[in-house]
Design goal:
The complex is a heterodimer. By secondary structure, chain A is of the alpha/beta class. In chain A, strand 7 and strand 8 form a beta hairpin. Chain A is globular and about 80 Å long. The two termini of chain A are about 50 Å apart. In chain B, the strands form 2 sheets. In chain B, strands 4-3-5-7-6 form a 5-stranded mixed beta sheet, covered by helices on one side. Chain B is globular, with a radius of gyration of 25 Å. The chains are: A alpha/beta, B alpha/beta. At the A-B interface, helix 11, helix 12 and helix 13 of A face helix 13, helix 14 and helix 19 of B.
């Protein structure tokens, strides 16, 4: 059994290291924020807000993952603020996660099939690989969950620690609690403001006429009211996690997805054949050993409450149920089942190869527009260009941290030369400039211009012709 | 349950379904789309001359835009055009009426499947108010008719095991469905063959005479179908909509990505997000502000599907439709096209009815009544919202999806057309000629004389007929033409032009300008 584990872990580690070295994907906003914060902590013991070794990292109306920041600290210190330094933190945490899952399987199953197969499916799952490389903070939650499931002592210790920590957050940082609540599905059930949506719908009848407006009585109000909209919202919230296109077919389904959001992440997190099998998960979950079945329910609830942002937490469950399914397929027929094994292995290897290809070669198709544009902007500018005054539009999202990471700006320089902007709603602190780099929207035609300036914006920002422009395209 | 009460409830459901489908057909959707105009004009032509627009005598498939449309919609439109005139109501009325009849079919089919009137009433109720079934009855969709005949065929088949005469009508229904819509060309024969397989024991007891006649009918029509396939008419549309165009993509390994594309399309028709949350993207299938089903139907849908899978009910037909129906749709390049899987959605309505009934069984006495009344009231609220969406929101928001402008422009042009030797029309819309024929109520006899089949080519490249010319206006040259009327969306920034009329839509926006040279 241990041999199998080491073979899988070794193969996985080589695979992930090769992926990290070869992937040319731009950094995500999560990565640049966490990485630069870790870099700043490593150099100055302060985060980007100037706080010394904090537990919570406030950032642009949100909070960074504390795990994500501290776990990147050592790799960035060792390898530098580069692709490998930023993304290698997940290798160790990922390996630890695989080990804990292996222990969990050893505790609950005797058959080698139900130890090796879930372990392989789990380790090479696109969702797991994606979190290992790009979002080590979320991955750590899964590591902790598996640690609880495998170790009684740790479970007790963790429970006490978690309770104290939660109480401290509740007492001392209500902003954090409020922000997390707003992100959860529970917020769906709170009274919200539907005034704009309702007024918009009502306006059509009022302006263009409606059979439901009789003698100046607007009978549209029977449905165009907050109660009806709020009730529909509640039902909508049950359905929103079940977006099959986003999880498995983002490349292909652009006719339906492209209108959902301009910034939708296009990386598949499940293989296409996993979608129908996940339906069967609810059939096979009854076969789980009963004490762990009881744990499956709160985990599922947590995933549901977070609007499936924590879907990684049910990946072990999915892997186990997929192995039940494969067991059923292969061993249900004594005569022919064994002949399925080799084609299935080949098919699975092909799947992993294709996903790797997507990671490495097709990042322009699954990266968000914002990440890709920032990547091109800051790689386009040379060291000589940085001596000029640079004005970058903030239409592409928050460009500051992309600049700080891509140009490896010294934190001391950052603290000494940054200019804070106005504090806007929800205590969001914007940064106006760092040294000679300014972050703001502009109208080029009306701006006072001097020599040796570089203006970076969208095409609409430029009203004049015959200019030497370097256009950034996604 | 008392038969009288069942009848009253069913009658009320039919009234509700009829109202949603028939009210304001002239104005919502806001104008005809190409296919509606084509069927409508061909129906008009056949009713007057027994020939379609290309002069073909009583066609089975009509050439139309070179995709060889099914003609069942056309023949069904003839009486309604005679009654209501060549307009939106005349064109859409048959489809809306069939949508109402489908409610009845759903009811009786549910009775056959579950032997439970309550399930049947729930299924009929949800079907009568669902956005997809209402909207796709109002827009003329041949898939709507195909679905009706397919479901009718299944119902009659099951009933024919007791009343054998119905076997003939069942087979006829399947055949009509097959000839009506592309997806059903595959689905209908497959389902019929499956029914024969499932009920092979019972079929041994069916009167040999009726069985023989049914088989003869099926084989005859199948041979006719094959002949039309060979001729290039029956499957003409397939060449432009099939998924194999994606095979030309550069991705490697191509087979893997191709299979990924196929599976994705198949699964999209089971995706709750597509069914209950997202507005469909195909232009004529969108009901502004609504998804395919209502969001509250998600849980009964899941539960109904679960109950079917638990095999509590002998409903292998339901399985069959559920797994087969997306296959023809999967083989097209569209990711999610609701119009191609209407039979599947009908089955979903049955799941929802079953799920709702089963949930109501958890309650007893007074609470059960409260639950049922609550569900019905909430369903009615959603139907009300749908009514507002269809009659107020959609005509304005999605005006551009329905080839706007012709409805207002063509009558104005036809009022003055006899003053001019030629009329030059520039429009961004495809197939503009059909709207001039339709809204101009152009005499089919006159059109038949003016149409030069050699000139227009195959596939059709030219749309001109008589004095009507459809092309881009090149003003520097065209202003020299004498006694010519020009029609365009606007003549801004053009000199030496005399605007005769500005045509406006009902919202006051200018849709076109009629002009001559100075």
């Amino acid at each position: 059994m241990a041999k199998i584990f080491w073979i899988i872990l070794s193969g996985w580690s080589v695979f992930v290291i090769l992926l990290i070295i070869n992937v040319k994907a731009p950094y995500t906003i999560t990565e640049v924020r966490e990485s630069y914060t870790a870099y700043s902590l490593g150099q100055t013991l302060k985060d980007t807000n100037g706080k010394t070794l904090p537990i919570l990292f406030k950032a642009d109306g949100d909070y960074l993952s504390t795990f994500g920041v501290y776990e990147r600290l050592l790799p960035i210190k060792l390898f530098g603020l580069n692709n490998f330094g930023i993304r290698s933190a997940g290798i160790f945490i990922g390996a630890l996660t695989i080990y804990l899952f292996y222990l969990f399987l050893r505790i609950n199953f005797n058959k080698i099939w139900f130890i090796s197969i879930p372990l392989i499916l789990f380790s090479f799952s696109p969702l797991f690989i994606k979190n290992v490389i790009f979002d080590v903070g979320s991955l750590t939650l899964l590591t902790l969950l598996l640690a609880i499931l495998t170790n009684k002592k740790f479970r007790k210790l963790f429970s006490v620690t978690f309770l104290i920590f939660t109480l401290a957050i509740l007492i001392f940082n209500r902003d954090y609690v409020r922000d997390q609540f707003h992100k959860s599905i529970l917020y769906t059930y709170m009274p919200q403001n539907y005034t704009f949506q309702i007024d918009k719908r009502l306006s059509f009848g009022l302006i263009y006429g409606s059979p439901l407006i009789i003698n100046n009585h607007n009978f549209n109000r029977i449905v165009l009211n907050k109660f009806f909209y709020a009730t529909n919202s509640i039902f909508d919230s049950f359905i929103s996690p079940f977006n099959f296109e986003k999880v498995s077919f983002p490349f292909q389904s652009l006719t339906v997805l492209s209108k959902d959001s301009d910034f939708s992440n296009g990386l598949p997190i499940l293989y296409f054949w996993e979608i129908p099998i996940i339906f069967l998960t609810f059939v096979f979950v009854r076969k789980l050993p009963s004490n762990n079945l009881k744990l499956a329910i709160p985990v599922l609830l947590l995933v549901f409450l977070s609007k499936s942002k924590l879907i990684l937490l049910i990946l072990p469950l999915i892997s186990i149920c997929e192995s039940y399914f494969l067991d059923f397929i292969i061993y249900s027929s004594d005569k022919y089942g064994k002949y399925l094994i080799y084609p299935l292995i080949c098919f699975y290897v092909l799947n992993v190869a294709v996903i790797s290809d997507i990671f490495i070669q097709k990042s322009d198709r699954w990266s968000t527009d914002m990440d890709m544009v920032q990547y091109k902007i800051w790689n386009m500018l040379s060291e000589g260009d940085l001596k000029n005054k640079i004005i970058v539009t903030d239409r592409f999202g928050e460009p500051v941290f992309y600049y700080l990471v891509y140009k490896k700006v010294n934190p001391e320089y950052y603290f000494s030369n940054k200019t804070n902007g106005a504090i806007i709603d929800n205590s969001v602190q914007r940064i106006d400039s760092v040294g000679n780099v300014y972050f703001r929207s502009f109208n080029f035609a009306n701006e006072p211009k001097e020599k040796n300036e570089i203006w970076i914006g969208v095409g609409k920002d430029y009203g004049e012709k015959n200019l030497d422009l370097k256009l950034v395209k996604t | 349950m008392n038969k009288k009460i069942i009848f009253i409830i069913l009658f009320l459901i039919l009234c509700l379904g009829s109202f949603l489908r028939l009210y304001n057909l002239n104005n919502s959707p806001p104008s005809l789309n190409w296919d509606e105009a084509a069927w409508g004009y061909n129906a008009f032509s056949v009713s007057q001359t027994l020939r379609d627009e290309y002069g073909k005598f009583l066609p089975i498939f009509t050439r139309s835009f070179d995709e060889y449309k099914s003609t069942l919609p056309m023949y069904l439109m003839i009486p309604s055009i005679r009654l209501f005139g060549l307009n939106e109501l005349g064109v859409r009325f048959p489809s809306a009426l069939i949508g109402v009849f489908t409610i009845l079919v759903i009811y009786y089919l549910s009775i056959e499947l579950f032997k439970n009137e309550r399930v049947a009433l729930f299924s009929a109720f949800v079907f009568s108010i669902e956005p997809w079934s209402v909207h796709l009855s109002r827009v003329y969709y041949d898939a709507n008719e195909a679905m009706f005949f397919l479901l009718l065929g299944i119902l009659l088949f099951v009933k024919s095991l007791k009343s054998n005469k119905l076997m003939i009508f069942s087979v006829l229904s399947f055949v009509i469905s097959m000839f009506t819509y592309n997806a059903d060309k595959i689905l209908s024969p497959l389902i019929l063959l499956f029914l024969v397989f499932v009920y092979k024991k019972e079929l041994k007891n069916v009167n040999r005479k009726y069985l023989f006649i049914s088989v003869c009918i099926f084989i005859s029509f199948l041979m006719l179908f094959v002949a039309l396939v060979v001729k290039g008419e029956a499957l003409a549309r397939v060449s432009t909509t099939n998924i194999f165009v994606l095979w030309k993509d550069e991705q490697s390994p191509r087979l893997y990505y191709f299979v990924w594309d196929l599976v994705g399309r198949y699964i999209s028709y089971f995706s709750p997000y597509n069914l209950f949350l997202r507005e469909p993207q195909e232009p004529s299938t969108i009901v502004a502000g609504n998804s395919i089903f209502y969001a509250y139907e998600f849980i009964p849908w899941l539960y109904g599907m679960y109950l079917i899978f638990k095999d509590k009910y002998k409903s292998s037909i339901v399985y069959l439709i559920m797994f087969l129906a997306p296959i023809p749709a999967m083989l097209t390049w569209n990711w999610f096209q609701p119009g191609r899987v209407m039979s599947l959605f009908a089955v979903y309505s049955i799941f929802i009815g079953l799920g709702l009934w089963r949930v109501s069984e958890f309650f007893h006495g007074f609470f059960k009544k409260i639950f049922v009344v609550g569900i019905v009231l909430y369903g009615l609220l959603n139907a009300f919202y749908l009514f507002d969406s269809i009659n107020v929101y959609l005509p304005f928001r999605d005006n551009g999806n329905y080839q706007p402008g012709f409805r207002e422009t063509v009558p104005e042009v036809m009022k003055i057309e006899n003053k001019y030797d030629q009329i030059v029309i520039e429009t961004p819309q495809s197939q503009p000629y059909i709207f001039y024929l339709f809204y101009g109520q152009y005499s089919p006899t006159r059109y038949a004389k003016e149409l030069d089949l050699n000139y227009i080519g195959t596939p059709r490249k030219h749309f001109d007929f008589g004095k009507f010319h459809f092309r881009k206006i090149n003003w520097e040259e065209d202003k020299k033409l004498k006694n010519t009327l020009f029609v365009k969306d606007n003549f801004d920034n053009i000199k030496d032009v005399k605007i005769i009329d500005k045509v406006k839509d009902r919202y006051g926006g200018v849709v076109s300008e009629l002009a001559t040279a100075n």
